Amino acid sequence: MARIRVDADRAIGTVDRKIFSGFVEHLGRCIYGGLYDPGSPFADETGFRRDVAAALKELNPPVLRWPGGNFASNYQWTDGIGPAEKRPKRLELAWFLTESNLVGTDEFLRWCEREGYEPYLCVNMGSGTFSEAQAWVEYCNGTKDTYWANKRRENGREEPYGVKLWALGNEMYGDYQVGQLTAEEYVRRARQFANVMKRTDRSIRLVSCGQNGWSEWDRVVLEGLADLVDYHSIHIYTGSSDYWVNVLAPHQAERSLRAMRALIDGVTYRKKLSHEIKVAYDEWNVWYRYTEGVYEPSDQPPLEERYDHSDALAVATYLNIFVRHCRTVGMANLAQMVNVIAPIFTRPDGMFLQTIYHPFRMLSEHTQSVALDTFVDGPTHDLVESPENMHWLWPQPVADMNPFQVLDVAATRDPDKSTLTLSVVNRSPDEEITADVELRDVVVAGAGQVTTLRHSDPRATNDFDRPDDVTPVESVAHVSGGSFRYAFPPCSITVFRLPTEPA
Ligand code: AHR
Q1: Which of 25, 29, 93, 176 maximizes ligand 1 atoms within 8 Å of its Cβ, making it the mutation to test the pocket?
Q2: Catalytic residue IDs
Q3: Whole domain around residue 221: which residue ranges?
């Protein structure tokens, strides 16, 4: 038996909907053959696939990060503008592929505009210069009679695109990154980039390139750039074929966010900053199976991870964590959205939704703007990590955080206290857990909705011939008053959406 207590008065912060954002990179079949496939019967008149766009729309990501990733560090954005037939094919050094440049700035930004996504562009701080980054801001946002703004007009776009979110490079600390830098070199260069980009458009919001939240790199970079940036980016990938390691490793994000909270508070106070800095968790996901192509060329389409049900529990846990740490996270981008470590998987004749699609959609749809403190008391699990079950390229040990509550819980409400949501992940592979849920300050005022994603086999996957093996079920929530008892099935994600009124 477990107890969950939620007090509608104990708000812990405002959830920025940007935590449900995404990332699409020029990598493998994410853009070409995924999002964009002009030869496909599913393509619209601009070459973007309608079926993929429709599935993405259901996830409702407010922001899409583009064009990389590691790709960004050797991307010449000027290759991707103007007449398609004149665009160069480039040897791509991050993923050892050939970049056709058929999807460039205008194609991506126009598509985002049509679909209703805010674009978030990452500038090339690897092989690129600050003049090129300045020119990109001018091309996208320039309003005057100047060279790059006029180039945009020549290319058929009169109105500026008004791109607000710009990242100062990607993972510049990595030895795999084109143009790797030390933290001190990065700060010096990033200040030069920021300076000319901001002089071109004062209204843009910059994102510094961080690492994991607790590293020396993060400390030096935030110290050096705090006066210029609105976000500090960090990345996390976890995963293991060991069930418990897989579902509990996302708690590493809690460590990162606690460390970032302290870092941001310290820098803000010391430097007397008048603006707020938030974390952009602009790459996060489960990813451990397909790492071919990361350090050297591979014959396999890169990073085409097939997700199982246990990965869906991990993804739901990540999202619960972002809600609980909403005072710190201002944006989070699932990496990635199509084919490459992605919830949407295509082939020329169709597509299917991977298991991880479902928790993302459930929480994107139901999460409200006010995050609430939750109290959980129930069965716990002590994680045992070993070299055998920590086989990821960058293992993320979390056993020092033992014991873990088996139920992971996040709660939100709307500002009027008329809707309350509760997201509960039961990570036990075989135990149903019954919990007494106690609401304070509000009572349930009518029929609610409960969406459940469950499967008896944590290894279950969806595929072209079994697209709905792991799929959510919706029902009426038979709960009322200020408290109710609920049996959470093993290996499940349960999201309640309850109409409420003052107690
Ligand atoms: O998302 C795949 C890759 O992972 C990105 O290109 C890079 O930024 C990260 O290492």
Answers
A1: 25
A2: 171, 283
A3: 9-371
